[in-house]
Write a structure and sequence with these properties.
Blueprint lengths: L1 H16 L44 H13 L3 H13 L5 H17 L3 H14 L7 H13 L5 H10 L5 H13 L3 H13 L8 H13 L3 H11 L10 H15 L3 H14 L10 H13 L3 H13 L6 H14 L3 H11 L7 H15 L3 H12 L5 H26 L9 E2 L2 H16 L3 H12 L9 E2 L4 H13 L5 H19 L1
Helix pairs in contact: 1-9, 1-11, 2-3, 2-4, 3-4, 4-5, 4-6, 6-8, 8-9, 8-10, 10-11, 10-12, 11-13, 12-13, 14-15, 14-16, 15-16, 16-17, 16-18, 17-20, 18-21, 20-21, 21-22, 21-23, 22-23, 23-24
């Protein structure tokens, strides 16, 4: 526990150095004895119930009084609570415990009905009648909750508590946390966190509220602090915990995704899917899943993308292009994941219809994946632009890229080039066309026009004699790639250049027809 306190306190210090504190003037609470400021509980203003006799003996039972107050509170019966308060008054001088009981229920019922004027006057009364040492944790919490329900700032109560120098209890700090969250007061939340850690109160605060606090911190950009709070005092969520804890974590996950923070998103998503897979099945809606996939593509998180895609498949949701694109992009840019990409595209892609622009976008990212991922592709572009590169370093990097590209080609041949059954050919999907075009484009990035032409011939040439079970038809993007190949063919490869130009001429005639 000591190590947890130190770690969380360190996170709070880092957070506070980045937080601008708003100066809030300290206000004093009026304790005037002016009758206007007091709530008079006169029996003439209350119609007494015949079934509720006045308590007149001094040996009244605390348990009986508590039960009657709780019963009236559950019925939200303000008249009955006022009657009980009047009975206590007429039965003799009430004890401090009886006063606290009566005022707690009176403040709660007034707050429930939003009777702010009466509530404020009642709090003034109890400040005079109940001694400071007897204002316990539950009473302070009730006052704060009353202010919250009446939509009033709790600053004056917090200032009063601080000025008295009393130790804040778990109920009081829980209510103060709730007020800070509702008021979106980041500095107050962080200050209360420090108090709670120093007083070792966090384990006594409901987990649902701690999750709300983490969500409030996340909304203000304090994602590391939010995760530290969860890790130290919330997880694991047990069967005995409030059932809304999992729902609260799902809402926090949505906040982390909206803030586009990969670490906190991965933490929340991993915990939920590993520990509460059945409960979150209906909580993770399609919109949140798409946002998770988009985040995985932006931050190149292939494992998260595959996990989300698997979650969609397990819940039998129909895969759309909005699910597939981010997954492919994340896997391609990560590098070394092309076997998974190609299998996904071949198996699922035929059911998806994509446009020309999407086709080219997919082809580009596939090409990046064939060349080792985004990082390696950037290095390749930089090396092509540099005049002098050590031969050994360049050869080693090029060999690694070629090995990856050859693996992609082999896998495509295994999945796409098969002898058709009963000589029946199936038209290749747009995604499959993008896949083949990306192989051609990858060779062109490596200045290998001959290999590009070989890939073209494998899939596009001689349709009457091809051995593939899929029919590939060149499109405008394929034509553009061949033009690039013709430009790369030097004078030393005049025959290659002539062959490519002849193919381009034939393609243009087919497309124009």
């Amino acid at each position: 526990m000591q190590q947890v306190k130190v770690h969380l306190a360190s996170s709070i210090r880092k957070c506070r150095t980045r937080t601008c504190y708003e100066h809030r003037p300290t206000r004093s609470f009026s304790t005037s004895s002016n009758p206007k400021n007091q709530l008079k509980l006169d029996t003439k203003t209350v119609s007494r119930s015949s079934e509720s006799p006045i308590i007149i003996n001094s040996n009244r039972s605390q348990a009986s009084i508590r039960h009657r107050f709780e019963e009236a509170q559950s019925d939200k019966n303000v008249v009955r609570i006022l009657e009980l308060c009047q009975e206590l008054k007429q039965a003799g001088r009430p004890s401090q415990d009886e006063l606290k009981l009566a005022y707690r229920h009176l403040i709660s019922i007034l707050a429930h009905y939003g009777l702010w004027t009466q509530l404020y006057a009642t709090v003034n009364e109890l400040m005079e009648l109940i001694e400071l040492k007897d204002r316990d944790d539950l009473l302070w919490a009730t006052i704060i909750e009353g202010f919250i329900k009446c939509d009033r700032s709790t600053d004056v109560i917090y200032s009063l508590i601080i000025s008295t120098g009393i130790n804040i209890g778990p109920h009081t700090i829980t209510a103060l946390f709730r007020a800070a969250i509702l008021e979106s007061n980041l500095s107050q939340s962080i200050l209360l966190l420090q108090v709670a850690i120093a007083s070792e109160l966090l384990p006594q605060i409901p987990k649902t509220l701690l999750i709300q606090l983490a969500g409030s911190l996340a909304e203000h950009g304090q994602l590391n602090l939010a995760v530290d709070l969860l890790h130290s005092f919330v997880v694991p969520i047990k069967e005995t915990d409030h059932p809304d804890c999992v729902g609260g974590l799902t809402r926090l996950l949505r906040t982390c995704v909206n803030r586009s923070d990969p670490q906190s998103t991965l933490y929340c998503y991993s915990y939920l899917t590993k520990n509460h897979p059945d409960m979150i099945e209906n909580l993770l809606d399609d919109g949140l899943m798409i946002e998770l996939l988009s985040l995985s593509s932006r931050h190149i998180m292939p494992d998260l993308a595959l996990n989300v895609l698997s979650q969609l498949v397990r819940t039998r949701r129909k895969l759309e292009i909005t699910h597939l694109f981010p997954t492919v992009i994340a896997l391609c840019r990560a590098g070394g994941r092309m076997s998974e990409v190609i299998e996904i595209l071949v198996r699922v892609g035929k059911e998806l219809a994509i446009g020309t622009e999407e086709n080219e976008l997919v082809a580009f990212n596939l090409m990046v994946g064939h060349l080792g991922g985004l990082s390696e592709y950037r290095k390749l572009i930089q090396s092509n632009a540099q005049e002098e590169i050590p031969d050994g370093q360049q050869d080693e990097r090029r060999e690694e890229i070629l090995n990856g590209l050859n693996k992609s080609k082999q896998l495509c041949r295994d999945l796409l080039i098969k002898r058709p059954k009963n000589n029946q050919h199936e038209r290749a999907s747009m995604i499959s066309h993008s896949l083949v075009n990306s192989l051609i484009q990858a060779d062109l990035e490596l200045h290998r026009p001959l290999e590009s032409l070989a890939t073209f011939k494998t899939y596009f040439s001689n349709p009457q004699n091809r051995s593939t079970c899929f029919v590939f038809q060149p499109d405008q993007h394929t034509l553009s790639l061949l033009k690039n190949a013709a430009e790369q063919a030097s004078s030393d490869h005049r025959s290659l250049q002539t062959e490519i130009l002849s193919i381009i001429d034939d393609l243009q005639k087919e497309i124009s027809c």
